[in-house]
Amino acid sequence: MSRDGQQYINEVRGEVTRALIPAITKHEIRQRVCERFAASEVYAFAWIGRYNPEHEEVVPTASAGIAEETLDGVSITEDSRRAELTSEAVRTRELAVEENPVDDPLYEDRRDRALEHDDRTCAVIPLVYEETLYGVLHLATDRPHGFGAAERASLAELGATIAYAFENAEPVANTDRAEREEAEAEMTRVPAESEQERRLYETLISSTPDLVYAFDLDYRFIFANDALLEMWGQTFEESIGKTLRENGYKEWHAEMHKREIDRVVETKEPVRGEVAFHHAELGRRIYDYIFAPVLNDEGEVEAIAGTTRDITERKEAEEALQESEERFRALITASSDVVYRMSPDWSEMHHLEGKEFIADTRESTSDWLEKYIHPDDQERVKEAIDEAIRTKSIFELEHQVEQVDGSLGWTFSRAVPMLDEDGEIVEWVGMASDITERKRYERELEQANAKLKRSNAELKRFAHAASHDLQEPLRMVSSYLQLLENRYGDDLDADAMEFIEFAVDGADRMREMVNALLEYSRVNTDGEDFEPVDCETVLDQAMENLQMAIDEHDATITSDELPSVSGDERQLIQLFQNLLDNAITYAGDGPPTIHVSAERRDGEWLFSVRDDGIGIDSEKTDEIFEVFNRLHAPDEREGTGIGLAICERIVMTHDGRIWVESEPGEGTTFFFTIPVGNGEGTT
Questions:
Q1: pLDDT digits over 278-318, tens only?
Q2: Which stretches make up the Histidine kinase domain (predicted)?
Q3: Which residues pair with residue 62 across a beta bridge?
Q4: How many Cβ atoms from other residues are within 10 Å of residue 201's Cβ?
Q5: pLDDT of 612-638, one tens digit each?
Q6: Which one, of 124, 205, 197, 136, lies nearest residue 167 by Cα?
Q7: CB atoms near residue 434 (< 10 Å)
Q8: Which residues contact 176 (CB under 8 A, 6 or more apart)?
Q9: Among 87, 558, 579, 622, which has the highest number of CB atoms less than 10 A from its own CB?
Q10: Distance (Å, rounded) from C-alpha 552 to C-alpha 550?
């Protein structure tokens, strides 16, 4: 039980203890005790049974908060669970508890009655004083896990106090047969001495945690219990006969109570208030108090009795609860998410703020599953709930819901279990996000991806077929031109021979472009075959493929240490080869000098290929990655205009970026990135 819960139990205990003070007979004691318990918010009902040792039975004689017929015939000799629990308490002289009887299949026949009277957890407290059993007190609560260790200890002490009250009760005739028999037995005993009565009242008053005191009509204390003396830090002799101010009350406090005493004397009605002042040991505390008139035989006020209860923890809890509620309400207001509260077993939804996404629930409802969750997802939701309850862990799930307008939506729901100090779930608090802007997008994205895959596949088939279909006519054109030159070369003039040369050259360049287009289409875009690739090896292979060009132009290629990356080795070789070839092709007048490097930045590798060639106009750097785009005429520089487009496609396939920095005559540096992946090395 939480600290606040124990505080409330202590308050109930104080109420019951005070109820014993004006009680005279055993019957009055029983009835007042039952009424005080039933009037609290902690217990659903109470009944007290008188123990008859001769017949070894307990017969209910007083009750509150429950229909009388439910007590008829209940005794420890009967074959019922309540009788078994009572018998256990009588036999052991110890408190006995039965938790959640409504969930026990063995007692299905009494489930409806238990639910009707909130009889979820029961306790039987033996009323024993000096080894004499006077009866039992039966309490029930609707708390599924009530009667924790601290509560049991408190109730056991209270049971002894009630039994002591029975020991000193005054016998009286009663209309109830059992009470009359008891009264006759009591009449045979020696009447209690006034000293016994004094001990009774002193015990009851000293056992309560409340402050109990009395004033005379001159505002002087004529009584103060131990709790009040402890608060003052004074003895009884130091305090009695003194005024409020003489006992340390401040001026404003003393004057306030004097006015209230005057009002009680004038109206003969109690006065209730709340005040904060200093405790000798605990510091500033908050108290709730009642001043009541004590009337003489003529009906005149002869004294004023008072009780004061420390409600500091309760007020702090109320303030904390209010502050928490305000924060919770502010969170609900500020958030666009749905907020809900569920019972420990999710059988009831206590509250739901739907945020115009799903219908609000202001009252508890048990049909929330059918009301909100789509039939296709109900079983999946129940399975996730059962697992969360079993493990006392966070519930998380995406599922379909019925929206306010009746349409189908999607939500991501997350609920956290609220646990008590015993680790038991008392409630679930959850939030749910509308992910319908997202599920629809995911479906559209899936459809777009599927369409793109189909388009890519069709593009590959088209490029493959087109390249083969175009190669044959080009070969035929070249062959016939060469045949024309061989057969009729001596008969053709210089212009005709030049025309033939132009046509052959055009066919050859067309064949190169077709081959380049085929290579472009072969670049895989799904990344499914990626594996660790050593870029040192990739660079070596690219240089080997370009060895003739390197030797022809007397090119120098250097590099720093290069990392391993996750990728397609064939494509990466093509990437390095195209960039090196581009640097050689666009070199200046002297032999080209090229340097390759890499460094790790923000979760990716940044590669660079730098040359000292002719450079590129900065206004045209974005154009060079376009397919078939050339910055120079074919007779000026070789190339198909598709090599850098292939580079861009390869880098994009590897989830990277590529760009160029250059100025005319200052050389060119190509940069590209590849994300750091699993299994990669470092420089």
A1: 776 777 788 889 999 998 888 889 999 998 888 887 777 77
A2: 465-678
A3: 48
A4: 13
A5: 888 887 766 667 777 655 555 455 445
A6: 197
A7: 21
A8: 27, 61
A9: 579
A10: 6
Say how far apart CA 421 and CA 149 lie, in whole Å.
12
Lowest-pLDDT range, 5-19, 162-176, 182-196?
A: 182-196
Q: Which two tokens stand for residue 670?
A: 């190509």
Contact 614, 587 (CB under 8 A): yes
* Strand duo 211-215 + 301-310: pairing: antiparallel
Q: Which strand (E) or helix (H) includes residue 476?
A: helix 436-488
Q: Which amino acid is at 452?
A: L
The confidence score (pLDDT) of residue 195 equals 59
Query: Would strands 593-601 and 556-559 be described as parallel, antiparallel, or unpaired?
Result: parallel
Mapped onto helix, strand or coil, the DSSP state of residue 400 is strand
Q: Write out the two tokens for 240.
A: 């009695």
By CB neighbour count within 10 A (0-12 exposed, 13-18 middle, 19+ buried), where does 496 fall? middle
CA gap 177, 27 in Å, rounded = 12
- Identify the pLDDT of residue 193: 44
pTM for the model stands at: 0.42
Q: Which has more confidence, 110 or 429? A: 429
Structure-token match 């210089």, residue found: 494
- Residue 640: count of CB within 10 angstroms of its CB: 21
Structural domains present in the chain: 3-201 (3.30.450.40), 210-315 (3.30.450.20), 335-434 (3.30.450.20), 435-522 (1.10.287), 523-683 (3.30.565.10)
Q: Give the number of residues written for the chain.
A: 683
In SS3 terms, 155-180 reads as: HHHHHHHHHHHHHCCCCCCCCCHHHH
CB 456 within 8 A of CB 448: no
Give pLDDT tens digits for 535-591. Answer: 999 999 999 988 998 999 999 999 999 999 999 898 899 899 989 998 898 887 889
Structure tokens of 389? 């309850």
Q: Which of 113, 127, 112 is nearest to 62 (CA)?
A: 127
